[in-house]
Design a protein that fits this description.
Kelch_1; 7-stranded mixed sheet; Kelch-typ_b-propeller; repeat; Immunoglobulin-like; Kelch repeat-containing protein; 5-stranded mixed sheet
């Protein structure tokens, strides 16, 4: 008899050509019939309507087994919990059951252990377990690139909106609308929806000044049927717009944003019409009033300075060091002086002297509040690069601050870049220009772009040379990525008639001390490093600078086109145009909201105009 059953089963399987899938778990399938003929229980299948449900909500399970004949009915055991999320199970038919959730359980992830329970009843169950979640929160939508975009991304025709969980939404045009200062004639022309992404296609034109674009979505739900009704997503649309004129046109200045929100421009070289400032180097400072949209007088620095550096200390004060200038305005000379601006008292106070004069140097504020001063160029001809590295110990009283000599770089340099790596506990110093003097005359020096990378360890207070090699460059950019790596891009590789832009970007890993090639810039730029602004979640925009081209000698143009880069798409791409093609100006980065202001600079003559890159 057993043999007869066995051969009947084989014949049945062959004749029906049973494959994988639901046939295996169908109670009327040949396989179940075969198992029954063999004296085995059929497989009990359970299919749940959802794996996410609201507190006190309902989900359904369909099955091929009649649990109404059992005294205990359908059991869905959950182990290892104090509060059972399942309130009751109600049979709606022999094969369909309603599962009502306990409203007092408002969140959590749970597992129904089917195999362990039903093995005691000699039943084979599929699936052996089922995971579900109690979810009381509606879905969260955000722009793929965060809360900000460049205006050109609206003009390109579409935006991607991403969800933190699967959504249930029809995606009709009637369910999405636009409003806000950036809207202008912009409309949504089509919607392409998927479980985790909504792509909006646009027609019309946004406001050329940018602003806020609010996208409203109606009746977007998650799988647990949570919904906000109308979900409003405000997006900051960044654009270049004309700013007020400076009171004193300038180049080679420094801009900072204070902790109290005030924005300040310091020093620089004056336009020739402002030669009442003596040698042209400025101690003049101005505040930008973002409400009145104008510049107002700020207290003058103690020293006139150009080609200097300034950093904001951990306590909000501004520390300024070195540069070219003087105290009384009678001559230009290299400076060793430092000074500190206190925004509370609105005063400048002289600080300690550095050991050597320097300009085109760089400074970095360390985690303990001290300031690392690296390299630079001497102010005297023949021009020689500076190798010394000094540490300024910051105190509450500038008069009690001290300067500690750390050592000399392996390659003296100026016009370099440097950035603190929190992950490595080191300041990484990239490239720059090295100038070696070979004679007494003013032109007896040889400038060279550097490929070397040097490292200052904040714990051991020592300098070392990296084994990684940079593309030779100076007047370039660095940008710290969220993953701890460092993006290096731009600059030029030499001076005078053979000057060439460096298009290739690189990425340096400070933990492994390795460097790799990255994408190309669209434009070779130098002296534009002050025009780099963050916006959105992980984006930067690069504006201004000089593009060098060598055609029958050294030629260059200032650049009006801008380009962006983000960690999301990992490439440079064309974005909006700045209002002016300029270089050698300065900027104020709006750290609180993103974007910033480009100040002064030159296109032939020194400029007094400004422009903002913002959504404000």
């Amino acid at each position: 008899m057993v043999k007869t059953k066995f051969f009947f089963l084989i014949a049945l399987l062959i004749s029906c050509k049973i494959g994988t899938g639901k046939n295996l778990f169908d109670p009327n399938s040949p396989v179940s019939l075969g198992l029954l003929l063999l004296g085995s229980e059929s497989v009990v299948t359970m299919e749940f309507s959802t794996n996410r449900v609201q507190p006190g909500g309902v989900m359904y399970v369909s099955t091929n087994h009649d649990f109404t004949t059992k005294t205990e009915g359908l059991k869905l055991p959950i182990s290892g919990i104090s509060d059972d999320p399942i309130l009751k199970i109600i049979p709606r038919s022999k094969f369909l059951y309603e599962i009502r959730m306990n409203p007092s359980v408002t969140s959590g992830k749970f597992r129904i252990n089917l195999k362990d329970y039903y093995s005691n009843e000699s039943l084979l169950v599929n699936p052996e377990s089922f995971d579900f979640e109690i979810d009381s929160e509606p879905p969260i939508l955000e722009l793929r690139t965060g809360n900000g975009i460049d205006i050109s991304e609206l003009k390109s025709g579409f935006l991607d909106i991403v969800s933190n969980e699967d959504i249930v939404w029809d995606g009709n045009l009637s369910q999405v609308s636009l409003s806000g200062t950036a809207k202008n004639t912009l409309v949504v022309s089509d919607v392409i929806a998927s479980p985790r992404n909504i792509r909006l296609l646009f027609a019309g034109n946004p406001n050329s000044n940018g602003g806020i674009l609010t996208i409203s979505f109606v009746d977007i739900q998650d799988k647990a049927s949570n919904s906000q009704g109308t979900l409003m997503l405000p997006i900051n649309v960044y654009a270049f717009k004309s700013g007020p004129n400076l009171n004193v046109p300038r180049r080679s200045c420094v801009g900072v944003e204070l902790d109290d929100g005030r924005r300040m421009v310091l020093g620089g070289k004056a336009k020739k019409d402002f030669m009442f400032y003596g040698n042209g180097a400025l101690n003049h400072a101005e505040f930008y009033d973002s409400v009145a949209k104008n510049f107002v007088q700020a207290p003058d620095m103690v020293y006139r300075r150009q080609e200097f550096d300034a950093v904001k200390l951990l306590d909000g004060r501004i520390f300024v060091a070195a540069g070219l200038g003087d105290k009384n305005g009678t001559s230009n000379d290299g400076l060793t002086s430092t000074e500190v601006y206190d925004p509370i008292t609105n005063t400048w106070t002289e600080g300690p002297e550095l050991s050597v004069p320097r300009l085109f140097h760089k400074m970095t504020v360390l985690p303990n509040g001290d300031v690392l001063v690296v390299g630079g160029m001497s102010p005297y001809k023949p021009i020689q690069s500076v190798g010394s590295v000094e540490l300024v110990h910051i105190t509450e009283n500038p008069a009690s601050m001290t300067v500690e000599f750390i050592g000399n770089l392996s390659d003296s340099r100026g016009k370099h870049t440097q950035i603190f790596s929190k992950e490595a506990g080191k300041v990484i110093i990239f490239g720059g220009e090295r100038s070696d003097v070979f004679g007494p005359l003013s032109n007896d020096f040889t400038p060279n772009a550097l490929e070397s990378i040097e490292i200052y360890d904040i714990n051991t207070k020592t300098l070392s040379k990296s084994t990684a090699k940079l593309y030779k460059r100076f007047n370039h950019f660095v940008y710290g990525l969220k993953n701890g790596e460092i993006l290096i891009f731009g600059g030029i590789n030499s001076r005078f008639d053979n000057a060439q832009p460096v298009l290739r970007a690189q990425i340096y890993n400070p933990i492994t001390d390795t460097i790799r090639d990255h994408k190309n810039l669209l434009f070779g730029r130098e002296y534009g490093s002050s025009f780099v602004f963050p916006y959105g979640k992980d984006q930067i925009i690069v504006a201004g600078g000089l593009e060098y081209r060598t055609v029958n000698g050294s030629t260059f143009d200032s650049i009006q086109e801008t380009e962006s880069w983000s960690e999301s798409n990992y490439r440079f791409y064309m974005t909006s145009r700045s209002l002016n093609a300029r270089w050698d100006g300065c900027n104020i980065r709006y750290n609180s909201v993103g974007g910033g202001m480009i100040i002064g600079g030159r296109v032939g003559d020194i400029l007094g105009n400004t422009e903002e890159y913002s959504f404000e």
